[in-house]
Amino acid sequence: MRPSEATNYYFNQAADQLELPDWMRKLLVMPKREMTVQVAYERDDGRIDTVLGYRVQHDNARGPMKGGLRYHPAVDLDEVRSLAALMTWKTAVVDLPYGGAKGGIGIDPRTLSKRELERITRAFVDQIHEIVGPDSDIPAPDMGTNHEVMAWFRNQWEKYHGFNPAVITGKPVEEYGSRGREEATGRGVGTLAVKMLKRLNRKPEQTTVAIQGFGNVGSHAAKYLTEAAFPIVAVSDVSGAYFNPKGLNIPEVLSYTLKNKGSLEGYQGAQRLDADALLELDVQLLIPAALGDVINHNNVDRIRAGLIIEGANGPIDPEADTKLKERGVIILPDILANAGGVTVSYFEWAQNRQHYRWTLDRVRQELDRTLSEAFESVWQESVSRKVSLRTAAFILAIQRVKRASELAGWMV
Ligand code: NAD
Fold first, then answer.
1. Do the beta carbons of residue 173 and residue 179 sit within 8 Å?
2. Cys-Cys link to 4, which of 81, 148, 215, 337 (CB 3.0-4.6 A)?
């Protein structure tokens, strides 16, 4: 199943509950605009390389469209299309005044120099600057991009349109970024893990955790969960999985990766396993926080965790999702679980527009409040309709987008 088919499959499960007619489903699912552009840039040795860049704008009924920029070799139009739709449902679940979009370029940033990445980013902005802006579509970081890429993007966009840092979020804090943005997605995953455990009457100290991916989301989730007393027994990145059944020393792992260009490679404080083995460990809580489609028909029967929090976007395919549900596995879906990032991106955009800076305490408090309200609404919806948390989250999101579309007049 292609990524966009998987997203639409989940949409349709909720749309069935809401008994939406076909015309409405089609209108809500089809993206407003898909743009594919040529990105030509100069390599450090003087050669010209040409790659494709994408921006998909899915829906703007609830406000300007919002969504990250991904630099990864697997990026293609269908993946971006799926991620753009997820952003529409995600911003609606946490009730931010936004629609959904996503962008990306099919490159492997690890094989490019910093200057090459800067030139690619600027060339991409040259192609798409007319369709993005603080009131229309606001990009942000995603896999393979970071605050530096956001700063280049803003600088290039402002050459065409003038000063307006609200055009992009996830910027460096000293360059109109928000305090707490970098940690926000991982922190949100951690906050929601604590809330879910409370609801299930379980204790963090007795809940072993494995986290796939130790980048922005995975590392900050690990930090938060360790401070909340969860034993984290395994973490992984592209270099492999690192396992200690007695619990990893996360502060030590974090300082190791800080000194090792962000990588876990060579970490000696744990047993090293194949990267994919992490997913199948006998733990209570599994947090996929790397790629999409990592739990699928090939490995679903070997997944042993009873709880899964989707730090990554689309880590479980629909077939695996159905099997896990049948086995009673509780899954906190991506559109809620990793919404901390877009929530603090919204705070950054609001600060930029107010020309005012919030304290870290304020950002964290408002993040906690936003995610708590969303979690409670999704939980109640799931209980009252007897549906999964995923279907409940989609139901809430669809109702909000549908209402905004109705109020605006469907054909806007
Ligand atoms: P990142 O680039 O900072 O980190 C990705 C991590 O995954 C790295 O540690 C990488 O080594 C690891 N990884 C890659 N392939 C792997 C594999 N096969 N096995 C194990 N680890 C592997 O990316 P990120 O920003 O942390 O994003 C991770 C996921 O979270 C993505 O799905 C992204 O869409 C989603 N997400 C990110 C944010 C955000 O604010 N950054 C917000 C919402 C959702």
1. yes
2. 81
341 CA closest ligand 1 atom index: 40
According to DSSP, the residues that pair with 285 across neighbouring strands are 209, 307
Report the number of distinct structural domains present in the chain. Answer: 2
Confidence of residue 412 (pLDDT cuts 50, 70, 90): low
CA 64 remoteness from chain centre? 18
| CA quadruple 211, 254, 214, 238: dihedral sign | negative
Residue 159 among the catalytic residues: no
Q: Which of 32, 90, 102, 223 is catalytic?
A: 102
Segments forming the whole domain that contains residue 236: 184-337
Q: What is the pLDDT of residues 122-176, one digit of tens each?
A: 999 999 999 999 999 999 999 999 999 999 999 999 999 999 999 999 999 999 9
Residue type, 270: A
Q: What is the pTM of this model?
A: 0.96
Structure tokens at 117: 């990445």
What spacing in Å lies between the alpha carbon of 123 and ligand 1's midpoint?
A: 24
The residue out of 317, 337, 357 marking a domain boundary is 337
Same-domain status, 113 and 161: yes
